Automatic annotation (TrEMBL):
Residues 2-144 form the Glycosyltransferase 2-like domain. It holds the Pfam family Glycos_transf_2. It comes from Neophocaena asiaeorientalis asiaeorientalis (Yangtze finless porpoise). This is UDP-GlcNAc:betaGal beta-1,3-N-acetylglucosaminyltransferase-like protein 1 isoform X1. GO terms for molecular function: hexosyltransferase activity.
Amino acid sequence: MELSIFNDASKDKSMSIIEKWKEKLEGSGILVVIGGHDSPSPRGVGYSKNQAIAQSSGSYLCFLDSDDVMMPQRVRLQHAAAVQHPTSIIGCQVRREPPNSTERYTRWINHLAPDQLLTQVFTSNGPTVIMPTWFCSRAWFSHVGPFDEGGRGVPEDLLFFHEHLRKGGGLVRVDQSLLLYRYHPGAATHSVLETTIWTHRVRFLEEWALPHWATFTIWNAGRQGRRLYRSLTAGSRCKVVAFCDVDENKIKKGFYCYEDSQERPKPRVPVLHFRAAQPPFVICVKLVSVRLGHVWLGQPQGQEVVCCVHQEAAG
């Protein structure tokens, strides 16, 4: 086993800690490779991960953020899964630290069914197999491509995740808690704006799901459904045949007028009761409500659904 560490211009005592651990680990037979730079400012998460991969030599990559702790059996179990699924990203269940931080998000990470790892890739929670748990072959990583090196504010994990799916990659989770996933306000993930993530999600929805549909209905005539409609390209907006909702006040109005449109007359999209709406659907409601939506939509009849938005707070 080899440990590859890249120090992205840290200004604290990180290097002295790394050196102490290098001595301990190499005494146990683990090769430690250390890289880094001492520029005035860091170059970002994507750059650092790419450098750590480039300076390493193993056939498989097991990612670990410096503030997390992995369990002793993690590499063994995820490696076994990666051998069985060579073109997949392998994740695992996690335990949060502090224990009650992001409780709903942690439950979502740990309890998605295998098919939901794919069907819920459009939700605002981001990758269904979260980056701190990733394990994959070096060959597959090289096929998908390096992480985006745009630096602070770039969701490099989401962009890599989308590219992985574009190239036909699979998603597998080892259903054991193999990582202590630490939460703290200074984490790099908090530097990514919600609007940035929203834009990438909508573009991926348009690329990956909407081309297969001649028309579709947006489930939610409220703020989030209208936001999605406005965020679509003109070509995708033309496919929206209706909004649907359960709110009688929205339904009674009868339509949504896209006031910001340059078209004349301005587009007016019907607002229907959900029982009158036609699939396929893009659902723009809280994930807790989507479960009800599965009942309303009659999933056994095979109606197509994309869960696009999860506005429930991550905590």
